[in-house]
């Protein structure tokens, strides 16, 4: 399987560039600038190898011949600096072009390889980015103007000290057609919310796949935390939906559910 095929050589250094996402922009009659995501942003990796042997040149040539029409896995061993220690991260990639070879000295070659992050391609489960392991992430809050919205029902925004960023949206959770959506580009995500004595149960969908129910009840108030984690998600445009269930824990005093924030692995 391509996700198990790891690029065979470590470069001397890597130059990485984040390419802009595909965004369709249109000007509405009202004058409002409307935007629509067309694809996830991708990373371009420039791998540089200095004074490598002829055997290593042949390894890369063989690899390109094998994978010039397929994807494989690249382990970026110095992807991010976490408190002074470099963290590695795996990426699904494809070749941008044929590798470039330059004879520098007798039997010593300089090699340049260009790889593009592959959208929608899987990684082994253990190789997806995970903020718990120190990989960078970002938060998408419930009040984002375009990427977080109520699909149906009333989701009231209000200050809440225990919510992430001290604000959330609440829903009475009495109508099972009520829904809230976060739209993001990246890999996996973590769903953040608080727990309390008066909160109910919601259902979570990722791209219409059911991730199960989430019970927000607790015997005492608890600050917003990552209550659901889904890391094994290929790079792409994804939708996280929160659905009302009209259910609650037997000890909860109310059905109310909340939409707070998601933490995204880009």
What does this structure look like?
This protein has 2 domains: 2-127, no CATH class; 138-264, Jelly Rolls, CATH 2.60.120.260. Residues 24-28 have low confidence and may be disordered. The strands form 5 sheets. Strands 1, 4, 5, 6, 7 and 8 form a 6-stranded antiparallel β-sheet that branches. It has a 5-stranded antiparallel β-sheet with strand order 10-13-18-15-16, with no helix packed on it. It is mainly beta and 266 residues long. The protein has one helix spanning 54-67, and strands at residues 13-18, 22-27, 33-39, 43-52, 72-82, 85-95, 100-105, 108-117, 138-141, 148-152, 156-159, 167-171, 179-186, 189-195, 201-206, 209-215, 222-230, 236-247, 257-259, 261-264. The two termini are 24 Å apart. The protein is 5% helix and 53% strand. It is elongated, with a radius of gyration of 23 Å.
CATH class of the largest domain: Mainly Beta
Number of domains: 2
**What gap, in angstroms, lies between the N and C termini?**
24 Å
CATH topology of the largest domain: Jelly Rolls
Shape: elongated
Counted beta strands: 20
CATH architecture of the largest domain: Sandwich
Count the DSSP helices: 1
Key features?
266 residues; mainly beta; Jelly Rolls; 2 domains; six-stranded antiparallel sheet; five-stranded antiparallel sheet; 1 helix; 53% strand; elongated
Provide a compact summary of the structure.
The chain folds into two domains: 2-127, no CATH class; 138-264, Galactose-binding domain-like (Jelly Rolls). Helix content is 5%, strand content 53%. The protein contains one helix and 20 strands.
């Amino acid at each position: 399987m391509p996700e198990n095929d790891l690029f065979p050589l470590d470069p001397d250094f890597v130059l990485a560039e984040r390419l802009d996402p595909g965004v369709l922009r249109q000007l509405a009659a009202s004058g409002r600038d409307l935007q629509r995501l067309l694809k996830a942003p991708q990373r371009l990796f420039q791998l540089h190898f200095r004074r490598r042997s002829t055997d290593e040149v042949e390894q890369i040539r063989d690899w390109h011949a094998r994978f010039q029409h397929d994807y494989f896995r690249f382990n970026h061993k110095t992807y991010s600096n976490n408190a002074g220690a470099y963290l590695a991260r795996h990426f699904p990639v494809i070749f941008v072009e044929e590798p470039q070879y330059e004879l520098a000295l007798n039997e010593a070659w300089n090699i340049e390889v260009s790889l593009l992050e592959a959208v929608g391609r899987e990684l082994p489960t253990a190789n997806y980015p995970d903020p718990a392991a120190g990989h960078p992430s970002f938060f998408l809050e419930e009040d984002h103007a375009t990427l977080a919205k109520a699909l149906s029902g009333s989701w009231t925004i209000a200050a809440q000290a225990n919510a992430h960023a001290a604000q959330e949206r609440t829903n009475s959770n009495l109508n099972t057609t009520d829904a809230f959506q976060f739209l993001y580009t990246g890999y996996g995500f973590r769903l953040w919310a608080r727990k309390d004595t008066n909160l109910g149960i919601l259902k979570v969908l990722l791209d219409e796949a059911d991730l199960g129910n989430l019970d927000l009840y607790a015997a005492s108030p608890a600050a917003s935390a990552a209550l659901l984690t889904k890391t094994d998600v290929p790079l792409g445009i994804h939708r996280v939906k929160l659905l009302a269930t009209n259910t609650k824990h037997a000890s909860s005093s109310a059905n109310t559910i909340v939409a707070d924030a998601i933490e995204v692995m880009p």
